Each structure stands twice: as C-alpha cells, then as structure tokens.
Amino acid sequence: MGRQINNFGRFYLAIRAMNPIGDRDEVKRSLVWQYTNGRTDSLREMTREEYDRCCAELERLYGHREELRKERSATLKLMQRMGVDTTDWGRINALCEHTRIIGKEFAWITAEEHRELRVKLRIIERKGGLRANPGEARKAPPAPCRKAVSKPKTITFNINNITGIA
Predict the structure, then answer these.
(1) CB under 8 Å to 84, separation ≥6 — which residues?
(2) pTM value?
(3) Nearest to 7 by CA among 48, 49, 53
(4) Rounded distance, CA 118 to CA 76, Å?
(5) Which of 3, 45, 112, 160 has its CA 20 to 30 A from that of 9?
(6) Is the Cα dihedral 25, 30, 33, 38 positive or negative?
(7) DSSP string of 108-132?
(8) pLDDT in tens, 147-164
C-alpha cells in the first residue's frame, strides 16, 4: 500500500463545493465506494492514488466552477470596456486565439489563465487599445516644432549703374 492519508481536508473541501442535497456522510460513502471500485466505503481505507484521483475529479467538476465563472465574467467585462463585442463569440475567440494574447478558445481558458489574460488586456488598453483594422499602423507622434533659422540676407548693388559718384 502507498503512503497513508492523514489529512482529508482536500476531500471535504471538494464535497462542500458540491453542495450536495441530503446527508453528506452518505455522499462521502457513495463517492469512496465509486472511486475504490466497490472495495470500501471508508475514506481511511482509500489508497493515495484513489484519493488523489477522486479529489482531482471532484475539484475539476465542482471545486473551480464558481471561481471560473467569476474570472470569465471579469475578463468579458474588460473586453467589453475595450470595445470588443462580447455578444459575438466569434470575435471573442478570434481575440483569445491570437498567439500573443492567450492562444486558445475562450471556453478552454482556465481561471489562472483568465487572470493572465486580463493583465495582457490592461496593457493593451493602456497602450491605446485595440485598433478597428489590424493592418492599421499606429500613428507616430508629431515631431517637435523647430524654429526655422534664417540665413542673413545679403543685398547686392550694381556699382556701375550708380550715378552721382564723384
């Protein structure tokens, strides 16, 4: 048998996130029975591999759902503020699938990646936002105005045409 499990906090946190209807002990026994393939219904008798597989599956299904929903909502709100039409999933996915942004469809972005995505979007927003046409070049700032330095003017006279010289 592998290492003994001493702390069941991860399991109970995942069960709490499930928000089961009915008796939690019955739900616990049912889950343990399922993940041990009917070998036992005692949490203490689970192997480390069974426990880790059970907790990972529960966290994937229930534990991060609310967090992910909040992260997606915050990302969509920022995109909307930047001028992205958030009612058009094609535009949202086109933005997210760009390799410099996140490189995957919006639906497959994890909660952690949403936080990273918002950092990138804020940087883009600070630098002037998204351009309507991707090919549109950013205008260079106007060059500082310099005073034109004029050369001294010289006046030339034809001495041969001047009369009255003695």
Answers:
(1) 91, 92, 95, 130
(2) 0.47
(3) 48
(4) 9
(5) 112
(6) positive
(7) G--HHHHHHHHHHHHHHHHTT---S
(8) 656 666 666 656 665 555
